[in-house]
Amino acid sequence: xxxxxxxxxxxxxxxxxxxxxxxxxxxxxxxxxxxxxxxxxxxxxxxxxxxxxxxxxxxxxxxxxxxxxxxxxxxxxxxxxxxxxxxxxxxxxxxxxxxxxxxxxxxxxxxxxxxxxxxxxxxxxxxxxxxxxxxxxxxxxxxxxxxxxxxxxxxxxxxxxxxx
Length: 164
Description:
four-stranded mixed beta sheet, disordered N terminus
């Protein structure tokens, strides 16, 4: 994962997508391939953000930015881990994500994610309707979150919801 892969949308491209009254100041994305849906981060104009670094993977599964907003440093990471049922890829991906997050541990970390996994075994899988199994990927993801002191904010605010 490195800076050159992250693409910044040009002013002309933003005009085509959002129109001339766009409230988007920055849009960074990684488009990936036909097997990855891509990931993007949009920063609205009103935030008056100062970008210091960008990164992404070549598969379009994550894009991250270091940004300063109101004198506070943040690391924003958007993830699209479309790697269901591929345990080797899942483990490699989570190892990469863990390494990235450890490098940015001093900043406030905000992750917009789709890890494609229900973390709590007390809930049903949305596709099968069966109880969630805690495989190696689930355990590794939970371990990463615990090690880096990350919380699932959606689950905290929606403790009884079965789906989004």
